Amino acid sequence: xxxxxxxxxxxxxxxxxxxxxxxxxxxxxxxxxxxxxxxxxxxxxxxxxxxxxxxxxxxxxxxxxxxxxxxxxxxxxxxxxxxxxxxxxxxxxxxxxxxxxxxxxxxxxxxxxxxxxxxxxxxxxxxxxxxxxxxxxxxxxxxxxxxxxxxxxxxxxxxxxxxxxxxxxxxxxxxxxxxxxxxxxxxxxxxxxxxxxxxxxxxxxxxxxxxxxxxxxxxxxxxxxx
Length: 226
Ligand SMILES: C[S@@+](CC[C@H](N)C(=O)[O-])C[C@H]1O[C@@H](n2cnc3c(N)ncnc32)[C@H](O)[C@@H]1O
Hints:
The chain is an alpha/beta fold and 226 residues long. It has 8 helices and 7 strands. A 7-stranded mixed beta sheet has the order 3-2-1-4-5-7-6, with helices on both faces. Bound molecules: S-adenosylmethionine.
């Protein structure tokens, strides 16, 4: 399947983008979104954003939302920064950090309207499954970070990882499975385009954060890291 969504040139806000989309590296405190973006808007997080093939398109399509891209590889982060500024995006910021650390220690509880995790490293060998990003603990942290009504979206090409994603997502009491919106499904990542070109199926799943109290198993809420 080819990418079907082009980046609309006029989708950016009037304000000029900053010199760098990369956030300052204060890793001891939770991120204050109001200090990162010019407009206070719903915030969506992508973990493992790669070179930004999803988040660049999606943030351009949704100037009424703010987006934070997390990626640990500097070269990929620099691409997001360069392309995002070239596109004039003011609603996109990027952070070079480890994904689980960000979710656990840098995101305020009940602050995200969406969490996107697309094609995380599959660790196909059974003895490596414990290294996979999405597990029971991750979904507890995701449930804590999302606002009631916020959504968690995952994609993978790996059948056994997909089974694990669905198992832990469905086991999270704070989540209800939902259908991915068509407009989101149409925004495919570079990895996804490559898989589809090679005839490899890609799998999607989504959950909505219930309005009931968050999971009791997540870390206690705190306004600063340890
Ligand atoms: C297979 S790529 C997928 C990139 C992108 N989501 C896409 O679909 O095109 C996985 C990305 O996640 C990043 N990554 C893997 N583990 C990570 C971690 N623990 N923290 C932050 N980034 C991570 C990798 O550097 C890589 O860029």
